Amino acid sequence: MLIHPMPDPIAIQIGPLAVHWYGLMYVLAFALFIILGRVRIKQPHIAVLGWKKEDLDDMLFYGMLGVVIGGRLGEVLFYRPEYFLHNPLEIFMVWHGGMSFHGGFLGVILAMYLWSRKAGRNLFDVLDFIAPLVPLGYAAGRLGNFINAELPGRIAPDTLPWAMQWPGIPYPVHPSPIYQMLVDGILVFIILWLYARKQRPRMAVGAMFTLLYGCARFFTEYFRTPDWEVVWLGVPITSGQMLSLPMIVGAIALLVWAYKSQVMGTPPTKARPANT
Question: Which GO molecular function annotation, any one, does this entry have (predicted)?
Answer without folding.
Answer: phosphatidylglycerol-prolipoprotein diacylglyceryl transferase activity
